[in-house]
Amino acid sequence: MLTPDRLRKLNLRAQFTPADYSDHDTPGLPVITVAGAACFFYIDDTGTLCLSVHLDALDDDGRKLWGERLVPVRVTVEDTVLYDSRADEPSLLEYVAEAQKLTVRWRARAKSIRADRPLAHNGPADISTAIDDARKPFERAAWDLITSMAKAGA
């Protein structure tokens, strides 16, 4: 059982390891480790702020806490929950992923339509426009859902 005292002790044992660039081929990125769960937080060579969570090296405390089960994870940016593995409802991140999948499917479908159908008498521009017009309502609905969830703080 996770008591407030045990929780406090686990968090107080968290360790921060700064970046290490002594080996130019494999630099060590900055990492925070709690109960063996490692969270790398760094800026990559494109200037993107990156977060990478690694749960494959849990220590004894981590194994006692989570056992062989999946480690529950919650990701937030500011006060918006992007992902929560324990949530009953899909998270904002899952809606974004679904919207991206939808866009990929429509692009793939557009390519297959262009390849499979003979050109209409008005040319390929009409086919492309028709495909884009058919895709737009789906993308708009997904985007509206994402923005409404973000405004609601979901």
Protein described:
A hairpin with a 5-residue loop joins strand 3 (37-43) and strand 4. This protein folds into two domains: 4-71, no CATH class; 92-152. It has four helices and six strands; from the N terminus they run H-E-E-E-E-H-E-E-H-H. The radius of gyration is 23 Å and the shape is extended. Helix 3 packs antiparallel against helix 4. With 154 residues, the chain is an alpha+beta fold. A four-stranded antiparallel β-sheet has the order 1-2-3-4. Strands 5-6 form a two-stranded antiparallel ribbon. The model has no long low-confidence stretch (mean pLDDT 76).
Short description:
The chain is of the alpha+beta class and 154 residues long.
Return the string of H and E elements.
HEEEEHEEHH
- The structural class is alpha+beta
Strand arrangement, major sheet = 1-2-3-4
Largest sheet: 4 strands, antiparallel
List its salient traits.
2 domains; two-stranded antiparallel sheet; alpha+beta; 19% strand; 154 residues; four-stranded antiparallel β-sheet
